[in-house]
Amino acid sequence: MRKWMMVAVLLVCLALPAGAGGSALWDEAGLLSAGEAQALEARAVALAETYDFGIYLVTVPDTGGRDAYAYATALFQDWDLGYGGERNGVILLLSMAQREYALAVHGAYGRAAFTAYGQDKMTEAFLEDFGNDQWYAGFSSYLDSCETYLAAAGEGRPIGQNTDAQRHGALMKLAGAAAVGLVAAGVTLGIFWARMHTARTPGTAAGYETQAGLQLTQQLDIFTHRTESRRVIPSENANGQRHHSGGGFSGKRGKF
Predict the structure, then answer these.
(1) Is residue 105 within 8 Å of 54, Cβ to Cβ?
(2) What is the pLDDT of residues 169-214, one digit of tens each?
């Protein structure tokens, strides 16, 4: 019995990268040199201590078939990352098999500091580097953005806060306009239907007669038009970007 317990403990330890409890960077895909990894982690830790906010960088060969965003949030939870009671923090994950990234922010303060607009601008800063396999430059841009956003939030002016509010207001106005348009269309169709409900359309061409009394003696119905209805299936952006929220997290994922 003791032997099986020891094996179970060992498997759990192997499932976590070394030093998961106090580290900020895990380069499981081996994208960075030892010096690059050390420099990036030192800066991430320094920023975390300055702003009391966890900042993490993770690379993996693949996610085992899981969605990169779900994988990143699971790592954040399983490794008990984040600062304070709400575990505020942000994690950037790269999965090399899919060439997919995930950016996930946790905690009320984290979601306020890294707005949806801010996340879009943040990913723009590092996606070009990652697309060109410039891993150190991309992660450096990520840390630059983290410092900028946390400093702005600390001053009470989160980047993109007003933009997010404007987006929400624009969507509400658009929804209202659409509702008014549907009501107007419904009224118009109702009036049209009321005027036409007594009309009867003949089933064949023989049912029609000219003013001169001409009667058709030969019936030949020919279809000249066909109506097709098509449904548009929504898709992701060109690079697969998609926003996520829920479970205390907000963020996005996409391709690089």
Answers:
(1) no
(2) 433 433 344 444 444 445 455 554 455 454 444 444 444 444 444 3
| Burial grade of 62 (CB within 10 A; 0-12, 13-18, 19 or more) | middle
Please name every residue paired with 26 in a beta bridge, in sequence order, or none if there are none: 58
Write out the two tokens for 129.
Answer: 């580097």
DSSP three-state, residue 51: helix
Between CA 146 and CA 140 the distance in angstroms is 10
pLDDT score for 12: 38
Buried b (16+ CB within 10 A) or exposed e, 178-200: eeeeeeeeeeeeeeeeeeeeeee
- Measure the CA–CA gap between 81 and 13, rounded to whole angstroms: 16
Contact 71, 93 (CB under 8 A): yes
Cα gap 189→202, rounded to integer Å = 22
Question: In this predicted model, what pLDDT tens digit does every residue of 208-246 receive, in sequence order?
Answer: 444 444 344 444 444 444 444 433 333 344 455 678 778
Residue 157's identity, in one-letter code, is: R
The three-state secondary structure class of 109 is helix
- Tell me the whole-structure pTM to 2 decimals: 0.65
Quick one: pLDDT at residue 191?
Answer: 52
DSSP 206: G
Which residue type sits at 197? Answer: H
Q: Which two tokens stand for residue 178?
A: 């659409």
**What is the SS3 assignment for 57?**
strand
Q: Which residue type is seen at 145?
A: S
Report the distance separating Cα 136 and Cα 201, nearest Å: 73
